[in-house]
Specification:
49% of the residues lie in helices and 20% in strands. By secondary structure, the protein is of the alpha/beta class. It has one domain: Rossmann fold. Strands 3-2-1-4-5-6 form a six-stranded mixed sheet. α1 packs across α4 and α3 packs antiparallel against α4.
Amino acid sequence: MKIILDTNFFMAIAQFKIDVFEQLRGHELCLINTVEDELHKLSKGNSKDANAALLALHIIATKDLKMLKTNEKNADKSLIKYSIEGYIIATQDIRLRERIKKAGGKAIYIRQKKYVII
């Protein structure tokens, strides 16, 4: 499966300190450029979210993730388009998961701060 990780999914990985990469081993993991841009914006400052975003950026730098380019300014719109193309979207955003499902796509999320649910 080809899985695109959303901003809040990366943040959850950092905040809950879970190794989703072990659970998703064998799948092609991707991210889109707008997600990386959002993480860079979130990493500014000294908040809890800024620390999680910095850790997420470190994870991106150290893991073998395929970068997908999009011209779309809105990450959610891009993720929905990719879900229609057959990518599975990893997100904690309930509204986005509902929109993906309505569009005919699939989403995965983290449950109980430790399990990836497909």
